[in-house]
Amino acid sequence: MSSFMSGVNIKRICLNFLLCFYIATLAAWVVPGISLGVYDRFWQWAGLRQKWDMFAEIGPTSYKASFVIVDANGDRKVYYPGSLGRANQGCCWSLRQFHYHKFTSFLLAGVPENQVVDEIGKYLASHSMATPVKVFFNLNRIEISAPEERDGILVPPEYNRIHVLTKRISLGSAP
Amino acid sequence: MKSLARRWDLFWYEPQNSTPLGASRICFALMALVTAAGFFLDADFWFGPNAVLNSQTFSEMSQQISQASGFTIFAWLPLTDFSVYAVLVLWAIASVTLAMGVRPRISAALILIAMVSLRSLNPWVFFHTDVLLCAIIALMIFYPKQNNDGKTVPILRRLLQIQLTVIYFSSALYKLTNQYWRDGSLLYYLYHSKNLLRVPFLFDHFWSIRAMTWGTIALELVIGWLVWHPKLRRTCIVIGLLFHTMLHIFVGRSFFQWAMIGLYLTFIEPSEYEAIKSWLQAWRPTRLHALKNSKV
């Protein structure tokens, strides 16, 4: 009994318990749509919640967005989310582009209610031109036609571009 | 039952050569360093007080989406450009010390604090690679100490190996929730909606697109499990490395592929590392000699 309850054994039992607990958590996260409620929120708080849904939401529809900034002279600059005019070159550019892409997917998730669009428009206006007067946000939906073969070879797809919205962003409180 | 307990003990606690874990540690530390460098270049845009989204918007959006992580060192630090850059410099220095194996536990803890703190300022730029890096670095906090004979308890190595299996299997299950993955057409849409590398023939036929789409799911469903089998391990490692190298070339230069390769490093046995080392040592002088001769 004394040897069983020695310090080493207790440490090992605790460690085994923690390992089982961690693996059970990982196993639960494996399955799509599983939420562990409060327990999940703890992992969220710690910044360690995992979700492996890469390429799981791709389909025939995609969105293209752009910000158009016009200054007092009528000059225009166009920024496309995905890079926002940055990270096209230089150190770590491919890694940085993933950050911009991730941010873009978040940006497009809640359009047009998304106030983030306004914030980004104001930021780009104030950082790109001395006297910006107008900022527009354009959103288009691109639909790719279904695969079609002729003589065993895939026909190039048709791209159906649908204008979703153009939103004028107020520059009233530009940063 | 005793046999099961014995196997459990051997799996988690039998001391092993620490080379595979060390290789993986160096790989993830270097990834952490490059990630810090990437964020450093855009820190003013993403995180500072004058960032693209102001802090009020962040907090409102976080509450709506409940996506932000809660812990942040900026609860105690003032949010200024200087403090953001200081946290990133700390992250970079800790990455270097982790790569060198200097105080790996403290280094990993510092990187994790920096990553999680910055993530709480803007969770919407952290993509899958950053999530994986966070998870791995968090595990590195429990980096084992070496015994006198240079061996360590393999708990961390096992957890990294399990992580690889979890990622593959979970990714395959998520893909199966998408109808275009199930009907085999997804790579057609992916290819035509993103700027993927043009490969003639592969994307010219629907059967080849279907084969690649379903093949990807099949591979992800099984490879994470089969790599545990002693007889299939090497084959799975080679297939896995080829798979991620191809994804890196064709789908986009994602760091995620390097992270997966970093996890594969834990499946390579110490004797194989020795073999690779001797092969490199034998190869280098021969190559150098050949180069010198060619110059002469």
Write the layout of secondary structure elements.
The complex is a heterodimer of chains A (175) and B (296).
Chain A lengths: L6 H24 L7 H8 L15 E11 L4 E4 L13 H17 L5 H14 L3 E13 L4 E2 L2 E2 L4 E11 L6
Antiparallel strand pairs in A: 1-2, 1-3, 3-6, 4-5
Chain B lengths: L1 H12 L2 E2 L1 H23 L1 H4 L8 H11 L15 H20 L3 H18 L6 H13 L10 E2 L2 H22 L2 H4 L3 H8 L12 H21 L6 H18 L4 H10 L5 H26 L1
Antiparallel strand pairs in B: 1-2
Describe this structure in words.
The complex is a heterodimer of chains A (175) and B (296). By secondary structure, chain A is α+β, with helices and mostly antiparallel strands. Chain A has helices at residues 7-30, 38-45, 93-109, 115-128; strands at 61-71, 76-79, 132-144, 149-150, 153-154, 159-169. In chain A, strand 4 and strand 5 (153-154) form a beta hairpin. The radius of gyration of chain A is 25 Å and the shape is flat. The model of chain A has no long low-confidence stretch (mean pLDDT 83). In chain B, strands 1-2 form a two-stranded antiparallel sheet. The mean pLDDT of chain B is 89. In chain B, helix 2 crosses helix 7 (128-140). The termini of chain B are far apart. With 296 residues, chain B is mostly helical. Chain B has helices at residues 2-13, 19-41, 43-46, 55-65, 81-100, 104-121, 128-140, 155-176, 179-182, 186-193, 206-226, 233-250, 255-264, 270-295; strands at residues 16-17, 151-152. The interface between A and B is large, with 65 and 74 residues.
